[in-house]
Amino acid sequence: MGVVDNAPVASRRVLDRGDVQRVIARLAHEIVDRVAAEARGPLGIDPASLAIVGVRTGGAHLATRLAARIGEVSGTTPPVGLLDITLYRDDVLLAGNPVPILKGTDVPFDLQGRAVVLVDDVLYTGRTVRAALEALLELGRPAYVRLAVLVDRGLRELPVAADFVGRSLETRREERVRVRLTEGGADDDEVVVEVKGERRGA
Amino acid sequence: MSERVLSVRHLLGIDGLTRADAELILETARSFHEVNTRALKKVPVLRGRTVALLFFENSTRTRLSFELAAKRLSADTLSFSASGSSVSKGETLIDTARNIEAMGPDLVVMRHEQSGSHHLLLRAMSGAVVNAGDGQHEHPTQALLDAFTLLERFGRAPKDGLTGKTIAIVGDIAHSRVARSNMLLLPLLGAKVRVCGPRTMLPPGLDQYGVEATDDVDQALEGVDAVMTLRIQKERISGARMASDRDYFHRFGLTKERFKRLPERALVMHPGPINRGVEIDHDVADDPRAVILEQAENGVAVRMAVLYLLAVVHAKAEGA
Lengths: 202, 320
Fold this sequence. Notes:
The structure holds 2 protein chains of 2 kinds.
Chain A lengths: L9 E6 L1 H24 L10 E5 L2 H17 L5 E4 L31 E9 L3 H13 L4 E9 L11 E5 L6 E6 L9 E6 L7
Parallel strand pairs in A: 2-3, 2-4, 4-5, 5-6
Antiparallel strand pairs in A: 1-8, 7-8
Helix pairs in contact in A: 1-2
Chain B lengths: L18 H17 L14 E6 L5 H12 L3 E6 L7 H13 L5 E6 L4 H8 L3 E7 L5 H15 L11 E5 L6 H12 L3 E5 L15 E3 L2 H4 L5 E4 L15 H8 L3 H6 L5 E3 L22 H28 L1
Parallel strand pairs in B: 1-2, 1-3, 3-4, 5-6, 5-8, 6-7, 8-9
Helix pairs in contact in B: 1-5, 1-10, 2-10, 3-4, 5-6, 5-10
């Protein structure tokens, strides 16, 4: 049995409040530009069909913030949906994994034919994205799906890449990326990389 | 990460559940209720798992509801039905259970005419056991779907419970497992419960449930937020103790007149099958305030929640 101590033994802040705001603003501009370009491209999808879908729980506030910023940039605030991917995870019934309380999926619009940007706070193994795509595509058939993340921390286990990345970080497995984000944007918004204090004793 | 799991490994009754367990099941059921409103009503969470449905007593509603719940979780189902048999019930049950166990089900749902038979089943099964009704004892998923329906209709979150609400249960209280499970669950969630029926159908010891008991139906219905009407369990009563259907309807049935005197907000519930003109008036059963079909609909979501949460508990236990 291991001795478990969850207090971080070291941490570095990689984004502060101002950085988070700037990164979200840049992501919003990139999304608006790309969606407009896609409209002129072979898919020819109307930019007005854009919808933002956040992955609960980390992607939920980011999705709302991003949608509001996109509204300021383009003049049209896209609708926001939220996915609870718990029931689609490949590890939900694996022994020893924590099981979160179901928060529920809430996508209050038809996905058919839309341009969808899937949003999560941290891209890591890629397993969450795989589960999110499965959950999303069972709700409807968007014209296309792109992926936006606040932080890409590497260490992928599945062939998944983001289309919009706020910040790329080099991290190690034993580190934890903690994103603090509020819906309205607050003073304590930040992204911190912590070294977990988890030790395995005899 | 916030996390909560059930404190029990089997759902044998409401007895043994904590308030936190009940809230967790009801909260989880809300998510499954959303799944049931989708065009594609299925989630992959129990893919490759097997749910055995053992029904030793007749059932249509409950068996279909559990079967659909299991399928919407992507589980495979094994279905076994047998009504009362002449051989010793205990032996039949154990033999059947051993055979089913050999096929390796992860979850076993059982209905049996013998109260407490699930404890016998536990000896033969390694998976999670769910009571789908045992004799006159308990029918926990029915009480949970009743509570879910009440919360939805009252616009309350499970954590807010049913505080301040008064629910009347009218009918054959003594022989009803639905009544017993509700007498345990509704007060656990903070509701005030009144039970009412002919004196011969009010069991002794009702005090221990913290419910009020009366054989005056008009008194029982005064100021209620919901009334649950129950059918007379004829198959569990010897003939001499029963009044005629007509008599019963006049004395205890939810007649049009009694329905009119109910507060306007009051809901009418029935676990089914309904006997129109016996415990409930023909038209009252179809009134918009009768939520009988919503109960049936919500039953699927509640049973999905129970199967899922028990699968989670067992998965965690394997890793411990």
